[in-house]
Amino acid sequence: MAALIDATTALILEQGVTMSVRDIAMRAGVNHGLVHTYFGSKDSLLTATFGEISTRAAAEVGHTGFPQPIWHSGAGVNSPRPSHE
After folding, report:
1. CA–CA separation, 42 and 26 (whole Å)
2. pTM of the model
3. CA dist., res. 56 & res. 61, Å (int)
4. Cα 14 vs. chain centroid, distance in angstroms?
């Protein structure tokens, strides 16, 4: 569930990994039981979130082997995800 990963990403940026499942669910606007339904545990959600962060970062690597500068474009954690379809 993308909303849970996006919420977890935002909370990691704000406060590290010290958030609760209820904090994540509240940020995502869902019931906290969905964390367990979709991921099984907070640790599994964190693993999936870091995997998504890694995937997004890899998609931004340019021909130099470094990410392209995006700061001027306003892109960030709330930017739309690149489509992988």
Report:
1. 14
2. 0.72
3. 9
4. 12
- Give residue-wise pLDDT tens across range 52-72: 999 988 887 877 777 677 665
Cα–Cα distance measured from residue 1 to residue 62, given in angstroms and rounded to the nearest whole number: 28
Cβ atoms of 34 and 44 within 8 Å: the answer is: no
HSE at residue 51, side-chain half, CA atoms within 13 A, is: 8
Query: What is the Cα–Cα distance from 48 to 7, expressed in whole angstroms?
Result: 12
Q: Domain spans of the chain?
A: 2-61
pLDDT for 15-41, tens place per residue?
Answer: 999 999 999 999 999 999 999 999 999
| CATH no., domain 2-61 | 1.10.10.60
